[in-house]
Amino acid sequence: MARKLIVSAVAMIAIIGLVVSGCTTPEPEPEPPPPPTEREGGAWVDEIVISQEGSHAAAVLKLKEGTIHVYGHGLTDPELFEAVADDPNLSYQLTLGGSRDFMFNVYGPTFDTGELNPFYSAKIREATQWLIDRDYIAEEVLGGMGVPLYTQFSPGGAESARYKDLVDGVIAYYSYNPAKGNAQIAEGMTELGAELVEGKWHYEGAPVVIHQLIRIDLRPYPELGDYFADILEEAGFTVERLYRASADTWGPFLLQAPGLGLWNVYGGGWGMPAVFRTEVHSWAQFNTHLVMAGYPSWVQLEPLMEEWPEMYDAFVRLRYTDFNTMEERAELVEIALTQVRQFANAIWSVAITDFIPHRADVGMSLDACGGVSSQFPFTIHFKDAAGNPVRGGTIHMELPSILVQPINPVEGSAMTYDIMISRDLTGDWGLLPHPQTGLNMPQRIERAEVTVKTGLPVGVSPESADWCTLSFAPEIQVPLTAWADWDAANQKFVTVAERMVYDEDYRPFANRKSVVYYPADMWDWKMHDGSTFSMGDFLMSFIMAWDRGKPDSPVFDPAEKADVETALTRWKGIEILNTDPLTVAYYSDVYALDAEHSITTFWPGYGTYGEFAGWHVIVPGWLAEMNKQLAFSASRSDELGVERADYTKGPSLPILKARLDEAKAEGFIPYAPTLGEYITAAEAAERYDNLLAWYAEKGHFYVSCGAFYLEEVFPVGKIAVLKAFDDYPFASDKWMHLVP
Questions:
Q1: pLDDT tier at 78 (50, 70, 90 boundaries)?
Q2: Domain 98-351 adopts which CATH fold?
Q3: What is the β-pairing status of strands 209-215 and 238-244?
């Protein structure tokens, strides 16, 4: 009973979004602090060694033994929770550990093999929602460490409260009703030409087989996967259960062409990188091709959007805040909530409450939702006997899986733990979210001014008064000289005046203007290879955001085209107001309910996950893709029949090296008609020399700018070594007030 009460309390605390903190346990026997280091700023510890451990029980045992310091993945096992809570040498922090879903392959109605794919039918996909007992999953499979999940809104979150009546309606309609679900499946299968033979569905004389991917390294899988497989078998399907770890699901299955018929359904998990202030953007990510543009499982959704125009329009308008009032927003949410459950390319089962265990002599700030992200690399530290932070030492952290997919800064791995290495621990941001509230705070920028059109529902927190101001104006006009489009053929920005000539729908007025001010010393900041920041880094990132979706681009990726075309209808312009210090004004019809989230920082971040890179780091992959030797994204890799670029390991490295040598020999400047005005030949030569020296020393091309850099990877042993970056420009106590 005591354990059940503890678990229930854990679930309630995490789900309602209260401030999370470590447990209170007896003080452990003091251990000697790490040897001192002369480094004064940046990271507290000298090194983070990350290794793979798929067994949660084994990880907790290693924590008890002291061979590791942190297990960076949230755990849900009640017995492991009790073991950690009862050990005076261990502590933990609670997080809302994301959600679990079942994603369907919607290709069809038959695969290229001739096999029938039942989940081509939206009617059958929708019906599966009545077959799962979410209360059973939360209470029995998860032991109380979760709550039933029917929508993409976090239970207890702002959106669930804001649209409680709508969410309650979805819950009531899709509550457990296997008779209704099975009846609708039978109707859908008959429409597809299948017939029921002795209780099993057959198509053209053969059993209809569901190839189900079941994770073995993510609770509550495989139990939840087996539960769903049992349900499908009861509905008359023959199920092939493919038990796989995450490393063996993406490359061999999910990144392959859906028409191959390698899988029908995949049970996965999603985590939030931070506490979301709003969540209506997530439909565009999970249920369309727009955000996950480089991944075949989502690319296949594009033609289906024409069959669901009202739903798709609602998704797009919510993503780009194409509404004027909260009442109008609510109308769009109602359409989205209703129709997405009918479309059902993925269905939700449970939201997870979890805990991240660590040694008691280690302190850190963890995000209430994202866990090891946000301020973690800036706050992880050892503590002395009095609990004070001490500098130095090596943190040994384990994760369930790492180095799963190719890693590149433009459109690399989509796996959470790869992103943790390539973005969260080695990268940096213009803004960082507060770990408990999700409200943006200034990281690399100094301050911002936000102006929105009068009447739009935008506010600002008093806590942000020292760096973010909000004002309203009846009209926000975009200067005619601002850049408002990108000409991929001529590699030049298009001004507002020029765009008005050929784009009859464009109007030089915006709903929002944000101005960001960078610090005066920013051009002294260094990247991991010693290169100092320049305008080329900011402009290269901004160009690539548009260029890859333009057919005239040397690195055109068809998967990016729709998103770029849609975004261009909302982007109104950008002005470089000053370069020393950098000051940028951005005009757009897109805004957020919080002024702190209505800021476009212009920070050099690439792709779906916003990973940092200097312009010269992009060049070898850019040249390799242009010459059809490598590709940044999975879909482009499949289209060209080449390897996906991996900047950290494998067969990509010699290709990248050859292209870097070529760039150095030619003094190559990418997008020269534009960047040639900002990047000198001397800068290009120095940058290429820096990257070549980095590769000669480290054996990889992954260069970022965060508090840690990637020292080396061991892909066979599944180990990544990160070292503190001595030239990181900010003091190590900058975010220590966030440590519980």
A1: confident
A2: Dipeptide-binding Protein; domain 3 (3.10.105)
A3: parallel
